[in-house]
Amino acid sequence: MKQFVADVLENPVVAKDYRELFVRWPGDVRVPFPGQFLSVRVNTSSVPFLRRPFAVASFDKPLRVASIIYRVRGQGTEMLARAQPGEKLDFLGPRGFYFRTGVHRRPLLVGGGIGTGPIVYAANTLAEKGYEPLLVLGYRNSSYFPKLRLNPAVRFQLCTDDGSQGFRGTVVDYLSTLSAQATLDGFVWACGPQPMLKATHHWAHPRGLPCFVSLEQIIACGVGACMGCTVETVDERKFVRVCTEGPVFASEAVKWT
Amino acid sequence: MDLSFTLRGRKFTSVVGVASGTFGYGKEYEGLLDFQCVGAIYTKAVTPEPRIGNPSPRLVETSSGLLNSIGLANVGLEAFIRDKMPFLRTLSSSVVVNVAGAVNEDYEKVVETLERVDGIHGFEINVSCPNVRHGGMALGTDPRLVAKITRSLRSRTSKPLIIKLSPNVTDIGATAEAAEDEGADAVSCINTLVGMVIDIRSKSPVLPFGTGGLSGRAVLPVAVAAVYKVSRRVKIPVIGIGGISCWEDAIQHLLAGAKAIQVGSATFANPRLAQEVHEGILAWGSSEGLENAGQIGGLLRSTLV
To answer: Is the pTM of this model over 0.90?
Structure first.
């Protein structure tokens, strides 16, 4: 993890309420792992008071360009939405426990909303490593579905609650249509709104599929110092920090409420 | 200009410290700033036993500030000595252990044990945490209880003893005097202010216990006023904490009468803040023709009637 200044390259709208910020990644900062996050200082004054954490959405190794996909909602992201090409932004990262592969070979990746960026980055990273991930993304309707750049090896399924595009229903409704054969040797990675993560856990767990989820919490220091960004677990740790033990956790360790 | 200051014959290399709860145990900020500029690291509060802290959410951002309810989550005395001290000992910064507990015996146990541990420069006694049901602020808002715990801890340590004062009182000078009378070497002020944020959609307070402790730029004027008031009530040094987001804010604290300062939650946005404040005070002091930081308080032109 480092603190560094990066040049803004582009900051376009990619879906209703969503933008993607592209920055030039400095040569001395290591390549982020899928699921890791960056804390951005959106303003040098005390408004907003805290940095804003975002998980990496893409990383172009030859060009050394990284991006984050963010929802414009509230003071911090409204300021970030005004960032222009050529501006410099202060970053802290990359940081956090990330999505890691194990012995299983069939990735089932689930995401939507604010979780779109990191799960797409995870899918593309797996594809580069020779996996053939199934990526299932869900949205309320097609207007929230951002334009994506997917590796050809990624098998993609879009779901919308209203059926305006792709499968009509939630991501878990779609997962439930998969045959046992289609999930054989599978593992699940998920990033998105809390109800989606919870439903994904409850789908994966009884099927014996290892499931990892990326959780959200308000983060203050982003370096493990303040103990503010905790979430509850069902194991003896009781509370864990999203910025240090997470943001990616085994879903069976999370206390789902 | 000389930025060092001394407490009970023990020297701190800079008047700039990093406040308890905002800097972990130091290691978390390794590589993010020059520790040579950090005179003192006030550790995350240490209690005799590990504490898991309060339920989530623990944080709410406010206008130029932060409301927290961490609940003294910490690794406990034993793990602090075993896991955290080895790194802290490698630093040039002085290590001041922030001590907390539920009852007086907890504070006594931590101080007694750490008195014999190498590399500890002094103690800051947290009698002002607003987020615990026992000990904490309940202790720090009653001058008689502050007197009692100060006396007890004074008898257990020969190191600098700093009492961290609560602003959640009508007369902060009274608690400061109680600490001074019983042998404290300094008082630090202020701890966080009690605050509440309500979510109007759910119609309930955001933090699980309702209230939390407010810090950040928003509290700067409250802190400066407290430093001003306390430094005129006691002869022992006042260490200014509260709302420092840049070196100019630190100068306000020093002009108000603080002999040293701590930067707190503004470090979250700017990890290099302590270093920038150290360098800023140095540059400003030199331009003012000062020889040491201790002279700054004397520069205040008081036009109070």
So the answer is: yes
